[in-house]
Amino acid sequence: MTATEQPAAAAISVSHLSKSFRIPREGARTLKERVLHPRRTRRFELLRAVQDVSLELAQGEFHGIVGRNGSGKSTLLKCIAGIYGTDGGEIAVNGRLSPFIELGVGFNPDLTARDNVIINAIMLGLSRREAEERFDRIVAFAELEEFMELKLKNYSSGMQVRLAFAVAIQVDAETLLIDEVLAVGDAAFQEKCYAEFTRLRAAGRTIVFVTHDMGAVKRFCDRATLLERGRVVQTGQPAAIAHRYNELNYSLVRSEARQSHGPAALRRAPVAAIIDAGYETPAREPLVALRQRERCCARARIHFHAAVENPTFALALMDDAGQVAFATNSALTLGPSGAFQAGERAEVRCQFENFLPPGRYRLVVSVTAKDGSAAEAYDLREDIASIIVYSEAVGGGAMDLPHSLKIERVER
Length: 412
Hints:
Helix content is 25%, strand content 34%. The protein has 412 residues and is α/β, with parallel strands linked by helices. The strands form 5 sheets. Strands 5-6-7-3-8-9 form a 6-stranded mixed beta sheet, with helices on both faces. A 5-stranded mixed beta sheet has the order 12-20-19-15-16. It contains 10 helices and 20 strands. α7 (187-202) links the parallel β6 and β7 (206-210). The longest helix has 24 residues, at 238-261.
């Protein structure tokens, strides 16, 4: 760097940020109780949602924020967006910010979608003229041309997501904040949003992305930060953060199971742990979206902490309704899996033709004793990765099977 050159300012700088909430506890809950017990004081419990968080994002960085439910991810984003005030610390944002954080924020349900688009775009920094010029592009992306004169209170949650996201990406903002509310949208729209992520990243936008999907983190993010109970556990490369997230989930699930079940099987030292899983192409490229009828691979990596004979490895795909769309396991498909020693690792790969109907499918992975009994589960992950299946031609059935269709004219 020469004497005249200055280092580029960070897009977002968060320094020792803290945010707490006062949660009311037992007190007078009704008017009658207040009259009968006027001196009863209302008690509060302090919830420390974000604790001493420091983070710096470079301009043009795609940064993932991950963590379990209640870890402080959404609170952190709302503090950066200015929706929440803070208890302490500093936040510096370089350039215009476009938040896509909470369903319905900035929308008036009693106004038409058309009016909400214009008002929301102006609130996010566009002039009225700019908002009107970009109106057609916003509506086209949301694919809601037929519903613009409808009041927003008559929109479904998915339609509101389409509209809010379409507005957010049309604003000339240097930085976008995107929460996992995007998961409310349907599968086809989510794939469209993922394509938009690629475009925004290529355009040099700074994006902060909150998600539970480690596949999306590894596909899009330059770096990621893992939060737990409001504190930063680790910031680093996406693959390392995904691995740490899975390790943390595993240890916490086992700890909670010990407290709930007492001297049960889970009290024993862990035998095996699922350290990573996801969807890939046959060439091992990570996938977060897949066109129907294309080949796909679900895979998982397992670390053994102790010696075990013939464990059963199982993979299942679960849809948004909680139904198992597909399942397989090593005992039924391959027979005995062999012996594994402490310190060894195994990779399980299931390659299949994708005839699933459009939708989102969560990957469920388990490692059990050789009989496959749930009581002898060494590790089980129900939300370790997900994929969106999309198609231009939807059959409408529970499964789109490979088939042929023939029409013949016949004589009377």
